[in-house]
Sequence to fold (300 residues):
Amino acid sequence: MTAQFLSRWGVIGVDGDDTVTFLQSQLSNDVAGMAESQLRMAGLCTAKGRLLGSFFVMRRGQQVLLMCRKETVPALVKRLGMFVLRSKCKVRDCSAEYQLAFLADSGLMAPMRVQWDEQGNATASLRAIHGITPGIQLLTSDSPPAQTEGDDAFEQALQQLGIAYVSQATVEMFVPQSINFDLVGGVSFSKGCYPGQEIVARSHYLGKVKRRVFQATAADSIPVTAGQDVWLSGKENEPAGVVATAVNFNKQQYLLVELTVADAEQAGAQFAVKSDAGEARLQVQSPPYDVHQKGNVFEP
Fold:
C-alpha cells in the first residue's frame, strides 16, 4: 500500500468524558452507536439545516477525530466550541498532530471500516471502485511522512463514489439531502436531535427530495471550481444548479453537481459552467447509487 499525503484535508479532535454525548447532539449521524472499527460520515448543520461542514469520523476510546477540508477547520472548531458549555470535552484543531494520506487500495475488503494499530495509527476503507477499495490513513505526526501528494487522487475517488463534501466555497449552501449525504450514510434518521434536524427530517419523511448531486466531467481548458453556477441550455433565466465539488485529475475535471432530478434526467439536456474564461460544457451522469431512494442506504 503506497500512501499519498493529503495537504488539503485536516483533523478536528474532540477529547473528554462527554465527547460522544456532545457530538451526538451536534452531528447529523449517530456517534453513540459507532464502533471503533467503523468509519462514518457526518455533517454539522445550521439551525436551518444548511451544512457548515462535513466529516469522515473515527472514534477511539474517549476521542473522536473528524476529518474535513482543512480550510473549514478553524470555523468548525469555533462553532463546535460554542456549544461545549459544561460538557467535559474539548474541541481543537489536531491537523499538526496527524498526517492524513490517501490509499488507492486500502487492502480492507469491508466498506467503511477502520483498523487501528498500537501506535494510534488508523487505516480506513471507503467503498469499492472497479473492484478495489480506496481508503484513508490517519498517522501520528512521528510516523514517516508520505512522499507524494494525493489530494487530487483522493477527491477524484470521492467523486467516483458519489461522495460530496463541504469546502469553504460551499459552506451553508446545501442541506444534506441535496448533496446525497443521506444516500452515502452521512445522516441518521433514528438518532436524537441536532441543529437543523427538524428540517432535514421533514424533507426525508414528508417530501420528495427534488435536488441531488450527479457526477459530471468537463474538459480542463476552462477551470471549474466548487460553488459555481451550472446552467441548463434553453433555461437562461436562472441557474439550474451549482458545482458541489471539483477536482482536476489526469487532465480531466471531475465534478459533483447539484441539480434538480428532473433536469438531470431530462433526455438531451445540456449543462455548462460559465465564467469570464469561457464556457465549460459538462457531461452529466447518475452517481453509483439510486438518487430516487430514501436515505440511510449505506448506514451500518
